[in-house]
Amino acid sequence: MATSSQRRLNPTAVRQFGSGREAFQIPDLTVLQTKSYEGFLQEGIPGDKRKNQGLESVFKEIFPIQSYDGTVSLEYLRYELGKPSYSPEECRQLRLTFGKPLKVYLRLNRDQPYEEEVYLGDIPVMLGGGEFIINGAERVVVNQLHRSPGVDFVKETEGTSERPVPSARIIPDRGSWIEINVTKKDSLSVRIDQSGKFSVMTLLRAMSETLSTDADLLKAFYKVEAEKVDSKSAAKLEGKISVDDVIYPADHERAGEIIVEAGHKITKTASETIVSAGVKKIEVIDSPRVPFILNSLAEDNTSSHEEALLRIYQRLRPGNPPNLEKARILFHEKFFDVNRYRLGRVGRFRVNRKLGLGVSEDVMTLRPEDLIASINYLVDLSDPEGKAQYDDPDPLANRRLRKIDELACQELRKGFLKLRRTVQERMSLKDAEDMTPRSLVNPKSISAAIEYFFGRGELSQVVDQTNPLSQLTHERRLSALG
Question: According to the CATH classification, is domain 147-210+295-399 in 3.90.1110.10?
Fold first, then answer.
């Protein structure tokens, strides 16, 4: 009998030996990476329908770029991603980066507007569950765990005495940190980005012209009472705090002289002088249990909005001569420019929740009211009868996850800021008729930022390919570095 050429049995029926249950569907365990990068690129969505996030938000933040004299501007229209030049296998063999060319359409506004497409570099393409092919090697950008923006109140030891005192930190998503501390003299000092310490009242004066005088500051923190002065008022005024400067009336021989300065306690002698001088009305507050604000006001060397701006300018730019206009511009850029200082939606939510405010989450900058509420909370922490509580920065409730879209935006923004300076310099050197978007834009700063983030950044790591499970674990890893 001849041997059959068919060596494998082909069963005609399928028999199930299990329980008959349907197989459990495995969830997408890398959806955090893939969805985040899709939102960053927004590929396949028309330019006019893209959300203000990811790459689109960076373009809208940087553009339009205006020349120094304001006659010429470069405007952003849209961007497109082309087709990759090589396949993933070719990139692995040739040690290349698997990416798509990023082309941006710009319009140069001059006498005759000129539109042109500009190539800015290759954006790496995400494969599988979150890996990229960078210079032939598969790498992954791990998510970062960092301290959540907002306001935190912690207990610290003060100097050499080791006395526990409260401290507040206002942490933005982008911009300068503000740290408020209690000094040895029971006053409040503030530091901006590790600069020298100065009175917190100086910062409040600089933030708003409505908080320029001592009386404005006291009214922002305390309930003010208006007392009518008569012959029996001396005992009532004694021990109170004067809100404004108390001066001799116009019909007095010492007219214009100060009896009690703003923020000072009215003594028995001063109260008798006020009554005898013929002062009709005086604004006072009760003596507070925690004297932080009054002591801070006494230590403040400034007396107006302009003086406070100059004082902070000297702290932040110690070598520069004081200039009011430059001080105003610097302070505005430091705290009121959304592109430079940004609490973020998470930061604004945490500030509202901690301080009991009802500000819209669209307000990304720091307001004077936020700083006043933070100081009040700090005072409440030192009050034995206060209900305020300290924060613990270690729990995950006070930490936040920064995904790849946010991390890539942060690095690309640095490249685009360099690009903006280069474009403005070239605008000042060239004639308007000879300018084109391609001649103004140097894509090296953008391609260098992309290469650094995906190839050499702290959060870019070579994928662990020991086995599929180790690769999946690596793609889902969280890091506190960077």
Answer: yes
